[in-house]
Write a structure and sequence with these properties.
- It is a single chain.
- By secondary structure, the protein is mainly alpha-helical.
- It has one domain.
- The chain has nine helices and no strands.
- The longest helix has about 35 residues, at about 95-130.
- It comes from Elliptochloris bilobata.
- InterPro entries: UNC-50.
- Keywords: Membrane, Transmembrane, Transmembrane helix.
- Belongs to the unc-50 family.
Length: about 250
Protein backbone atom coordinates (compact mmCIF):
# COMPACT_ATOMS: atom_id res chain seq x y z
CA UNK A 1 0.00 0.00 0.00
CA UNK A 2 2.90 2.40 0.56
CA UNK A 3 3.83 2.77 -3.13
CA UNK A 4 0.19 3.47 -3.99
CA UNK A 5 -0.04 6.20 -1.36
CA UNK A 6 3.22 7.76 -2.51
CA UNK A 7 2.16 7.81 -6.15
CA UNK A 8 -1.15 9.36 -5.21
CA UNK A 9 0.67 12.15 -3.36
CA UNK A 10 2.90 12.82 -6.36
CA UNK A 11 -0.10 12.97 -8.64
CA UNK A 12 -1.86 15.48 -6.40
CA UNK A 13 1.22 17.68 -6.24
CA UNK A 14 1.56 17.53 -10.01
CA UNK A 15 -2.05 18.52 -10.49
CA UNK A 16 -1.74 21.41 -8.03
CA UNK A 17 1.29 22.78 -9.87
CA UNK A 18 -0.17 22.11 -13.33
CA UNK A 19 -1.94 25.45 -13.76
CA UNK A 20 1.09 27.67 -12.91
CA UNK A 21 3.25 25.58 -15.27
CA UNK A 22 0.52 25.88 -17.91
CA UNK A 23 0.46 29.66 -17.55
CA UNK A 24 4.25 29.96 -17.58
CA UNK A 25 4.43 28.13 -20.90
CA UNK A 26 2.12 30.68 -22.55
CA UNK A 27 4.92 33.25 -22.52
CA UNK A 28 7.48 30.69 -23.70
CA UNK A 29 6.52 29.68 -27.26
CA UNK A 30 9.52 27.38 -27.60
CA UNK A 31 8.01 25.11 -24.93
CA UNK A 32 4.74 24.68 -26.85
CA UNK A 33 4.22 21.83 -29.30
CA UNK A 34 2.50 23.54 -32.24
CA UNK A 35 3.02 20.61 -34.61
CA UNK A 36 1.06 18.25 -32.36
CA UNK A 37 -1.60 20.93 -31.82
CA UNK A 38 -2.24 21.36 -35.55
CA UNK A 39 -2.37 17.57 -35.94
CA UNK A 40 -4.91 17.39 -33.10
CA UNK A 41 -7.04 20.11 -34.68
CA UNK A 42 -7.08 18.17 -37.93
CA UNK A 43 -8.09 14.96 -36.17
CA UNK A 44 -10.91 16.70 -34.31
CA UNK A 45 -12.43 17.52 -37.67
CA UNK A 46 -11.86 14.24 -39.55
CA UNK A 47 -11.37 11.58 -36.85
CA UNK A 48 -12.28 12.81 -33.34
CA UNK A 49 -12.07 9.35 -31.81
CA UNK A 50 -8.42 9.18 -32.86
CA UNK A 51 -7.82 12.54 -31.19
CA UNK A 52 -9.28 11.33 -27.90
CA UNK A 53 -7.47 8.02 -28.13
CA UNK A 54 -4.32 10.03 -27.48
CA UNK A 55 -5.83 11.21 -24.21
CA UNK A 56 -5.07 7.84 -22.64
CA UNK A 57 -1.52 8.05 -23.97
CA UNK A 58 -1.15 11.43 -22.29
CA UNK A 59 -2.40 9.94 -19.02
CA UNK A 60 0.20 7.18 -19.24
CA UNK A 61 3.11 9.53 -19.96
CA UNK A 62 2.17 12.67 -17.99
CA UNK A 63 0.10 11.04 -15.22
CA UNK A 64 -2.76 13.47 -15.81
CA UNK A 65 -5.65 13.64 -18.23
CA UNK A 66 -5.39 17.35 -18.95
CA UNK A 67 -2.92 18.84 -21.41
CA UNK A 68 0.04 20.62 -19.89
CA UNK A 69 0.67 22.50 -23.15
CA UNK A 70 -1.27 25.77 -23.75
CA UNK A 71 -0.55 25.73 -27.51
CA UNK A 72 -4.14 24.74 -28.37
CA UNK A 73 -5.62 27.65 -26.42
CA UNK A 74 -3.07 30.12 -27.81
CA UNK A 75 -3.74 29.10 -31.43
CA UNK A 76 -7.52 29.21 -30.92
CA UNK A 77 -7.28 32.72 -29.46
CA UNK A 78 -5.18 33.92 -32.38
CA UNK A 79 -7.51 32.35 -34.95
CA UNK A 80 -10.55 33.83 -33.23
CA UNK A 81 -8.94 37.27 -33.17
CA UNK A 82 -8.18 37.10 -36.90
CA UNK A 83 -11.67 35.84 -37.77
CA UNK A 84 -13.35 38.47 -35.58
CA UNK A 85 -11.21 41.14 -37.23
CA UNK A 86 -12.38 39.88 -40.63
CA UNK A 87 -16.01 40.22 -39.50
CA UNK A 88 -15.29 43.72 -38.26
CA UNK A 89 -13.70 44.67 -41.56
CA UNK A 90 -16.85 43.46 -43.30
CA UNK A 91 -19.63 44.70 -41.01
CA UNK A 92 -18.24 47.19 -38.48
CA UNK A 93 -17.89 50.93 -39.08
CA UNK A 94 -15.62 51.99 -36.22
CA UNK A 95 -12.16 51.12 -34.90
CA UNK A 96 -13.13 51.15 -31.23
CA UNK A 97 -16.16 48.95 -31.85
CA UNK A 98 -13.94 46.56 -33.81
CA UNK A 99 -11.44 46.31 -30.94
CA UNK A 100 -14.24 45.57 -28.48
CA UNK A 101 -15.71 42.96 -30.81
CA UNK A 102 -12.39 41.14 -31.18
CA UNK A 103 -11.82 41.17 -27.41
CA UNK A 104 -15.37 39.97 -26.83
CA UNK A 105 -14.95 37.06 -29.25
CA UNK A 106 -11.75 35.89 -27.60
CA UNK A 107 -12.20 36.73 -23.93
CA UNK A 108 -15.96 36.37 -23.48
CA UNK A 109 -17.18 33.93 -26.14
CA UNK A 110 -14.25 31.53 -26.04
CA UNK A 111 -12.53 31.87 -22.65
CA UNK A 112 -15.13 33.04 -20.10
CA UNK A 113 -18.13 31.17 -21.50
CA UNK A 114 -15.84 28.19 -22.09
CA UNK A 115 -14.74 28.27 -18.45
CA UNK A 116 -18.38 28.33 -17.36
CA UNK A 117 -19.23 25.37 -19.60
CA UNK A 118 -16.12 23.51 -18.43
CA UNK A 119 -17.06 24.13 -14.80
CA UNK A 120 -20.58 22.81 -15.39
CA UNK A 121 -19.25 19.69 -17.14
CA UNK A 122 -16.60 19.19 -14.46
CA UNK A 123 -19.20 19.44 -11.67
CA UNK A 124 -21.70 17.18 -13.45
CA UNK A 125 -19.08 14.51 -14.19
CA UNK A 126 -17.58 14.45 -10.69
CA UNK A 127 -20.90 14.73 -8.85
CA UNK A 128 -23.08 12.31 -10.81
CA UNK A 129 -21.15 10.34 -13.45
CA UNK A 130 -18.22 8.78 -11.61
CA UNK A 131 -18.36 5.01 -11.24
CA UNK A 132 -18.62 3.75 -7.71
CA UNK A 133 -15.48 1.98 -6.55
CA UNK A 134 -16.12 -1.66 -5.69
CA UNK A 135 -12.96 -2.10 -3.62
CA UNK A 136 -11.89 0.05 -0.70
CA UNK A 137 -8.23 -0.04 -1.79
CA UNK A 138 -8.97 1.29 -5.29
CA UNK A 139 -7.71 4.79 -6.08
CA UNK A 140 -10.61 7.19 -6.47
CA UNK A 141 -10.34 9.27 -9.64
CA UNK A 142 -11.82 12.65 -10.44
CA UNK A 143 -12.21 14.73 -13.57
CA UNK A 144 -9.62 17.50 -13.60
CA UNK A 145 -11.02 20.97 -14.24
CA UNK A 146 -8.29 21.60 -16.81
CA UNK A 147 -9.36 18.47 -18.66
CA UNK A 148 -12.95 19.76 -18.77
CA UNK A 149 -11.59 23.00 -20.24
CA UNK A 150 -9.57 20.95 -22.77
CA UNK A 151 -12.82 19.25 -23.81
CA UNK A 152 -14.42 22.64 -24.39
CA UNK A 153 -11.45 23.85 -26.44
CA UNK A 154 -11.43 20.68 -28.54
CA UNK A 155 -15.15 20.99 -29.18
CA UNK A 156 -14.93 24.69 -29.96
CA UNK A 157 -12.43 24.41 -32.82
CA UNK A 158 -14.78 22.73 -35.37
CA UNK A 159 -17.52 25.11 -34.24
CA UNK A 160 -15.13 27.98 -34.97
CA UNK A 161 -14.54 26.70 -38.50
CA UNK A 162 -18.27 26.49 -39.16
CA UNK A 163 -19.61 29.59 -37.41
CA UNK A 164 -16.68 31.93 -37.94
CA UNK A 165 -14.99 30.89 -41.17
CA UNK A 166 -17.69 29.17 -43.23
CA UNK A 167 -20.43 31.53 -42.09
CA UNK A 168 -18.40 34.56 -43.17
CA UNK A 169 -17.81 33.03 -46.59
CA UNK A 170 -21.52 32.26 -46.97
CA UNK A 171 -22.73 35.51 -45.39
CA UNK A 172 -24.03 37.06 -48.66
CA UNK A 173 -26.31 34.04 -49.06
CA UNK A 174 -27.19 33.51 -45.38
CA UNK A 175 -28.26 37.14 -44.91
CA UNK A 176 -30.97 36.97 -47.57
CA UNK A 177 -34.52 37.30 -46.24
CA UNK A 178 -35.79 34.01 -47.64
CA UNK A 179 -36.80 30.59 -46.44
CA UNK A 180 -33.81 29.01 -48.17
CA UNK A 181 -31.40 31.34 -46.40
CA UNK A 182 -33.07 30.62 -43.05
CA UNK A 183 -32.87 26.89 -43.74
CA UNK A 184 -29.15 27.04 -44.55
CA UNK A 185 -28.40 29.27 -41.57
CA UNK A 186 -30.25 26.99 -39.15
CA UNK A 187 -28.62 23.90 -40.64
CA UNK A 188 -25.18 25.47 -40.21
CA UNK A 189 -25.79 26.34 -36.57
CA UNK A 190 -27.39 22.98 -35.84
CA UNK A 191 -24.38 21.17 -37.32
CA UNK A 192 -21.89 23.32 -35.41
CA UNK A 193 -23.65 23.08 -32.05
CA UNK A 194 -24.45 19.39 -32.52
CA UNK A 195 -20.83 18.57 -33.32
CA UNK A 196 -19.72 20.62 -30.32
CA UNK A 197 -21.83 18.46 -28.00
CA UNK A 198 -20.79 15.26 -29.76
CA UNK A 199 -17.11 16.07 -29.19
CA UNK A 200 -17.89 16.91 -25.57
CA UNK A 201 -19.47 13.48 -25.23
CA UNK A 202 -16.35 11.85 -26.71
CA UNK A 203 -14.15 13.82 -24.35
CA UNK A 204 -15.90 12.69 -21.19
CA UNK A 205 -16.55 9.15 -22.42
CA UNK A 206 -12.77 8.78 -22.94
CA UNK A 207 -12.39 8.73 -19.15
CA UNK A 208 -12.74 5.10 -18.01
CA UNK A 209 -14.01 6.03 -14.53
CA UNK A 210 -17.13 7.82 -15.85
CA UNK A 211 -20.45 6.26 -16.84
CA UNK A 212 -23.67 7.49 -18.46
CA UNK A 213 -21.74 10.13 -20.39
CA UNK A 214 -24.50 10.08 -23.01
CA UNK A 215 -26.06 12.94 -21.02
CA UNK A 216 -23.70 15.20 -22.95
CA UNK A 217 -25.60 14.22 -26.10
CA UNK A 218 -28.97 15.35 -24.78
CA UNK A 219 -28.63 18.95 -26.07
CA UNK A 220 -28.46 17.53 -29.61
CA UNK A 221 -32.00 16.20 -29.21
CA UNK A 222 -33.15 19.67 -28.14
CA UNK A 223 -31.46 21.20 -31.18
CA UNK A 224 -33.27 18.76 -33.50
CA UNK A 225 -36.60 19.60 -31.86
CA UNK A 226 -36.12 23.36 -32.17
CA UNK A 227 -34.69 23.26 -35.72
CA UNK A 228 -37.98 22.75 -37.68
CA UNK A 229 -39.75 25.52 -35.77
CA UNK A 230 -36.88 27.93 -36.38
CA UNK A 231 -36.93 27.21 -40.11
CA UNK A 232 -40.73 27.47 -40.44
CA UNK A 233 -40.80 30.82 -38.65
CA UNK A 234 -38.03 32.16 -40.89
CA UNK A 235 -35.67 32.74 -37.98
CA UNK A 236 -32.06 33.21 -39.12
CA UNK A 237 -29.41 32.64 -36.43
CA UNK A 238 -26.89 34.33 -38.71
CA UNK A 239 -28.86 37.56 -38.86
CA UNK A 240 -29.61 37.32 -35.13
CA UNK A 241 -25.94 36.86 -34.19
CA UNK A 242 -24.62 39.59 -36.48
CA UNK A 243 -27.28 41.98 -35.16
CA UNK A 244 -25.98 41.39 -31.63
CA UNK A 245 -22.43 42.27 -32.61
CA UNK A 246 -22.97 44.84 -35.34
CA UNK A 247 -26.54 46.06 -34.96
Amino acid sequence: MLPTTTNGGKRSASQRSGLPLYLRRIIRPKQMDFEYTFWLMQQLCISPKTAYRHTSYHKQTKNQWARDDPAFVVICCLLLAVAAAAYCATFSDGLWHSVLTVLSAVVVDFLLIGMAIATAGWFLANKFLRKRTLHSHAIEQHVEWMYAFDVHCNSYFPLFLLLYVLQLLLAPLLLWRSLVAALLSNALYAAALGYYHYLSFLGYSALPFLEHTEVFLWPIALILVVLPFAVLTGFSPTRFTLNIYFG
